[in-house]
């Protein structure tokens, strides 16, 4: 249905701070596995495991990675598995369009910021929460968009090459009706990460 040659499937299980990931690369045309592997580690090793899986898949497909691909694979959105896990859970709540879940996400992100200090993902998450209060119609005060822009600025200052700050700035530009800025920031985010879901949407 998707007209793809290969499918990567698998599962991830988390118990406390321990991870167990299984992956399998399948040739969809003949429904045959080409490669499979199991990985174990801790939450703080999430990005190392992700990189190992990506490189193993590229090797199984006999792909030659470009310098850009290599740089992208080695990139870490944050140094902390705790932060990444919290960001993903908060992001789910932010996008739920439920006021109580949005409040909880914002509280969780602020608590995490107090624990680990400045982090581009936490800043981007807080900015996204402020934007969502306006986007979802919970508030009509433009000060929330200003607060989101301040968080985006902090994310960009800490991670100028990352997608999260520009992605948030694109959302803010769209909310303010500035299409040129929206496109500029979205393109910048996609250059940093061509798989950024917010900008792809």
Brief write-up:
The chain has 201 residues and is α+β, with helices and mostly antiparallel strands. The chain has nine helices and three strands, in the order βββααααααααα.
Put simply, the count of helices is: 9
Low-confidence stretches: none
> What is the general shape?
globular
Question: Would you tell me the overall average pLDDT?
Answer: 90
Which range does the strand content fall in?
15-25%
List the helices and strands and how they pair.
Elements: E1 6-15, E2 18-27, E3 32-42, H1 46-60, H2 67-74, H3 81-94, H4 99-116, H5 120-135, H6 143-158, H7 164-175, H8 179-192, H9 197-200
Antiparallel strand pairs: 1-2, 2-3
Helix pairs in contact: 3-4, 3-5, 4-5, 5-6, 5-7, 6-7, 7-8
Structure description:
The chain is globular, with a radius of gyration of 19 Å. Helix content is 58%, strand content 15%. The model has no long low-confidence stretch (mean pLDDT 90). The chain has a 3-stranded antiparallel β-sheet with strand order 1-2-3, covered by helices on one side. The protein has helices spanning 46-60, 67-74, 81-94, 99-116, 120-135, 143-158, 164-175, 179-192, 197-200; strands at 6-15, 18-27, 32-42. The chain has 201 residues and is an alpha+beta fold.
